[in-house]
Amino acid sequence: MRAIYPGSFDPVTFGHLDIIERASLLFDSVIVAVSRNPLKNPLFSTEERVEMLREVLALYPNVEVDSFEGLTVDYALQKKAKHIVRGLRVISDFENEFRMALTNKKLTGVVETIFLMTKAEYSCISSSTVKELASFGGSLSCFVPPLVEERLIEKNKNRSFKLEKIQEMCAV
User: Fold this and answer.
1) Residue 69: beta bridge partners?
2) CA within 13 Å, CB half, 125
3) Is 136 assigned a ligand-binding role in the annotation?
4) Whole-model pTM?
5) pLDDT digits (tens, 9 = 90+) for 112-166
């Protein structure tokens, strides 16, 4: 049985890793699929997100990382995956995820969505929160792996440098 776990993973968090690890125990093969959404403005490029995921998931032999654009359900069919794994942190996540699951089922008739509740200690973690914490220099060690923390710090140094240069040019 093959499953995909789609998401933006901008950046990957311990909450994502919790879901991936548990999915790897349930399925023979799990594809962690980084979505390219032209309507979003991610902090990390698709390539950077794929690279980070490959590095932090290297110890899982039945997990591969890929990227895709378009409908998740079309990607699942292309990869011959009959299951889409979705993580739920809080009750409010369920409404949107449930709607998407019903839509995907209606579109294909064969792709099932499997919901996994994240562990309680990860329920407050979101990529958006992590990016905001990073932008203010907050501690990230309990939210993301060290590699991801390093990349976030580096990204924010570059952004701060660019902002300072813009401010200097405007002051002239």
Assistant:
1) 36
2) 24
3) no
4) 0.88
5) 999 999 999 998 889 999 999 998 888 899 999 999 999 999 988 866 544 444 4
The fold of 2-123 is Rossmann fold (3.40.50)
Bridge-based pairing of strands 2-7 and 112-117 is unpaired
Token duo for residue 137: 């220099």
**Is 40 among the residues known to form the active site?**
yes
Full DSSP string of 74-90? HHHHHTT--EEEEEE-S
Does residue 160 have a known ligand-binding role?
no
Is 16 annotated as catalytic? Answer: yes
User: What's residue 168's pLDDT?
Assistant: 52
141 is in an annotated binding site: no
- Judge whether 127 counts as a catalytic residue: yes
Confidence of residue 171 (pLDDT cuts 50, 70, 90): low
Three-state DSSP state, 29: strand
H-helix or E-strand spanning residue 68: strand 63-69
Known active-site residue 89: yes
In Å, what is the CA distance from 70 to each residue of 33, 35, 36, 37, 59?
A: 12, 8, 8, 8, 29
Catalytic residue of the set 83, 127, 131, 151: 127
